[in-house]
From TrEMBL:
Its main location: cytoplasm. Substrate binds at N13, N65, G75, N76, N172, E189, R190, G200, T201. GO terms for molecular function: diaminopimelate epimerase activity. This is Diaminopimelate epimerase.
Amino acid sequence: MKIHFSKYQGAGNDFILIDNRDLSFKDTDKNTVFQLCHRRFGIGADGLMLLQNHPDYDFEMLYFNADGNLGSMCGNGGRCIVAFAKHLGIINQETDFLAVDGPHYAKISEKGDWVDLQMIDIDTINKDGEAFVLNTGSPHYVAQMNGLEDYDVFHHGKTIRNNDTYKKEGINVNFVEDKGDHLFVRTFERGVEDETYACGTGVTAVALSMAQHKNQTGHIKTPVKVLGGDLSIEFDYDGKQFTHVFLCGPAQKVFEGEVTI
Ligand SMILES: N[C@H](CCC[C@H](N)C(=O)O)C(=O)O
């Protein structure tokens, strides 16, 4: 069976997107998704998404990690699927769509290459030693450090992700260095089981953790640099709850094609 797909990336977090409004892509078994995302044997991507119809929303987003498992929320994926929906003519400048963690509002630039995606409200940040642990649609571990450019993110991320606390459910491991005017973040992603160039729910988790850590309240805008580019997180924090949380950044189509599965 031939499948038409588009490849998108948001700050280097890359995805295969399939317009599945006609439900022709039924073959979402683990191995097919794994093969399509494989960087040697397939198209290559950190994840795969299906855009599907929904009676109450502009569309529904179904997200699979590169390992083939149905994933939790993907922030950069969410931004990319909004750009995809605009390119398909499903939406204009604004949208309300449904993802695994609930409804999301997003707005997209006129050119269709910059997306501000609203994330879920957060009221709980836990601690694991010095690290912060929270769920921004996906589970995240946030550790502060210096010398992050030269840090072995793969080794240390993998060790934390597979320790006794997190092994079963898995966790995404983010390392952050405060650079004064911005945060520098690197992430080891569950489901990819490797460092990725960017993680949207991850940088969101980092920005919220740092605001709580620094006792910042009010309307906060946090610029973040990741390996694949620049992202920005904006939110309101009253000392208890994080609301109006927006993940903002680029979302670009790279190519499209056909693949036989
Ligand atoms: N890259 C994603 C995270 C995907 C979630 C996944 N790695 C998991 O938690 O299983 C993002 O931009 O938010």
